[in-house]
Design goal:
Its EC number is 2.3.2.23. This is E2 ubiquitin-conjugating enzyme. There is one protein chain. α1 runs antiparallel to α5 and α3 crosses α4. The chain is rod-shaped and about 140 Å long. The protein starts with 8 loop residues before the first helix and ends with a helix. It is α+β, with helices and mostly antiparallel strands and 270 residues long. Helix content is 44%, strand content 11%. The protein has two domains: 173 residues, Roll (Ubiquitin Conjugating Enzyme); 63 residues, no CATH class. The protein has six helices and six strands; from the N terminus they run αββββααααββα.
Length: 270
């Protein structure tokens, strides 16, 4: 499950939409995957464009998104070794889109397409790999030979990303965000120290108690607790008080009647 603590909620929401769109409608020659533990790391497999020294190769790369993305550009790295003027030996990608030409409105799709185009048209003038840049300017055939050698050795087809993995991850992410929002709303509604309604789980004073008979012996029945709210407890107490008052009044009336009958009998004797 993605925790995504490295990115703000509004950025995560936008990323979820973009990733789902990339999964359902991928750019030509590009397949995107995600890190289920952190959406700030985006993976992509890029197919080597036809007619280039990278043809028939599959190059895995990643984009690292900082917490202030999209206000600052992501950092791009090739995980697959590649001989290219604009890709350093440690995999770092040098392209203007991820540097001076960055715009917060640019999406992941645009970034990935630009990176793939870099395999078609390198820029030796801003080379991170000086050997590749110099070779490209002075002897293209030698450059292409080295690039094809790297491609044949390192850029073999990778295990494919799980189909529908992005949709599953973004769906789970949306559920997590919904649950978090609901939890935060509950915490705001229930202020610290606020009085909460007390729920009584004691048996109702009016609940009947029965006796179960089995094997010739009397056994007390188990009486299930009756949950009542504060109002229910008050109503039960009031009903009990009323019943006791009625019973007390009846007993007094019966005693008065006995006294009157006794007086009548005494008068008859006289």
């Amino acid at each position: 499950m993605a925790t995504n603590e490295n990115l703000p909620p509004n950025v995560i929401k936008q990323l979820a939409k973009e990733l789902k769109n990339l999964d359902e409608s991928p750019p030509e020659g590009i397949k995107v995957g995600v890190n289920d533990d952190d959406f700030s790391i985006i993976y992509a497999d890029i197919e080597g464009p036809a007619g280039t020294p990278y043809e028939n190769g599959v190059f895995r790369m990643k984009l690292l998104l900082s917490r202030d993305f999209p206000h600052s550009p992501p950092k791009g790295y090739f995980l697959t070794k590649i001989f290219h003027p604009n890709i350093a030996m440690n995999g770092e990608i040098c392209v203007n889109t991820l540097k001076k030409d960055w715009n917060p409105s640019l999406g992941l799709r645009h970034i990935l397409i630009v990176v793939r185009c870099l395999l078609i048209e390198p820029f030796p003038e801003s080379a991170l790999n000086e050997q590749a840049g110099k070779m490209l300017l002075e002897n293209y055939e030698e450059y292409a030979k080295h690039a094809r050698l790297y491609t044949g050795i390192h850029a073999k087809p990778k295990p494919k990303f799980k189909t529908g993995a992005i949709s599953e991850s973004t769906t789970a992410l949306n559920v997590d965000q919904t649950n978090s929002s609901a939890l935060n709303a509950d915490q705001k509604i229930t202020a610290p120290g606020a009085a909460l309604p007390v729920i009584s789980v004691s048996p109702s004073p009016l609940a009947p108690i029965t006796v179960m008979r089995g094997n010739g012996q009397d056994q007390p029945a188990v009486v299930a607790p009756v949950e009542t709210g504060v109002g229910g407890c008050a109503a039960s107490a009031a009903a009990t008080t009323t019943t006791l008052r009625k019973e007390g009044g009846l007993a007094k009336a019966q005693a008065d009647k006995k006294k009157i009958d006794a007086r009548k009998k005494s008068l008859k004797r006289l």
